[in-house]
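Query structure, 213 C-alpha cells:
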C-alpha cells in the first residue's frame, strides 16, 4: 500500500504506521524519525534541523523534500510505504505530487486520523520515546517494564525536547495553520479517507477494508 497518514501530532500516525507495516511489508517513512536520527548523529542535516525542531517549528520545506526525494527511491519502497508526518505543508504536498509523477508512483489514499484535542494533549504530555530505536511509550497507558529503559533495545526512554507544554501548543498551532489544509487538498485530489481514530487497531481495520474494496 502507498498511503499518506494525516492527523495532528499525537493522533497516532506512528502507531498506525507501525501496525500497517506488519500487514504487507510496506515501510514506514517518518520524517520526524529521520530528522531525530540526523540530529543525534550530528550530521549536517541534523545541525540544520535541530533548532527548528526544539522550538516546535517546522523544518524548511527544501530540507524535507531533499530527504524524501532520496528516501522514496530506495528499493524498500517498492513494496509500498506509509508516509508519517509528511507532507506537512501545501508546498510539500505539491512537491510530493510532482515527485511521485516523475517516479511513476501512484498513491492509494491519504488517511486523516481524527482525534479530539483533549485526547491529543493528554497523549503528547504523557508520551515517552526511546532515544535509540524510537519506540513509543506512554507513562500512563504503556510504560516500559523498567522505568526509563526501552523494552526492545535497552536504550534510554525519554521525553522529547519538543514535548514540553510550550512546544506542544506551538506544534498544535502550526498543525492547524499549516498542515490541516492538507485535508482539503487531498479531498480535492480524490484521495481522502476520514477515520475517527479512537483505537489504532480500529483504524488499521478500516484502512484494510477500504483498500480491499
Ligand atoms: P509529531 O507528529 O509527533 O509532531 P514528528 O516526529 O512527526 O512529530 O516531527 C517532529 C518535528 O520534526 C516537527 O515538530 C518538525 O520540527 C519536524 N518535522 C517532521 N516532519 C516534518 C515535515 N514534513 N516538515 C517540516 N518539519 C517536519
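Result returned for the query:
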Amino acid at each position: 500500500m502507498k498511503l499518506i497518514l494525516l492527523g495532528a501530532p499525537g493522533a497516532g500516525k506512528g502507531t498506525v504506521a507501525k501496525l500497517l507495516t506488519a500487514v504487507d511489508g510496506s515501510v514506514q517513512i517518518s520524517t520526524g524519525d529521520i530528522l531525530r536520527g540526523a540530529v543525534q548523529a550530528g550530521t549536517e542535516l541534523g545541525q540544520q534541523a535541530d533548532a527548528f525542531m526544539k522550538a516546535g517549528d517546522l523544518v524548511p520545506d527544501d530540507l524535507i523534500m531533499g530527504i524524501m526525494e532520496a528516501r522514496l527511491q530506495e528499493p524498500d519502497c517498492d513494496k509500498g510505504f506509509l508516509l508519517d508526518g509528511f507532507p506537512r505543508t501545501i508546498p510539500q504536498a505539491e512537491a510530493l505530487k510532482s515527485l511521485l509523477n516523475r517516479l511513476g508512483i501512484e498513491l492509494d489514499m491519504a488517511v486523516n486520523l481524527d482525534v479530539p484535542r483533549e485526547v491529543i494533549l493528554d497523549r503528547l504530555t504523557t508520551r515517552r520515546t526511546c532515544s535509540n530505536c524510537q519506540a513509543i511509550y506512554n507513562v500512563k497507558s504503556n510504560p516500559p517494564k523498567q522505568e526509563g529503559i526501552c523494552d526492545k533495545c535497552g536504550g534510554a526512554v525519554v521525553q522529547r525536547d519538543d514535548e514540553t507544554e510550550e512546544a506542544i501548543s506551538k506544534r498544535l498551532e502550526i498543525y492547524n495553520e499549516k498542515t490541516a489544509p492538507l485535508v482539503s487538498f487531498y479531498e480535492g485530489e480524490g484521495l481522502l479517507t476520514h477515520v475517527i481514530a479512537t483505537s489504532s487497531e480500529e483504524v488499521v481495520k478500516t484502512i484494510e477494508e477500504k483498500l480491499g474494496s
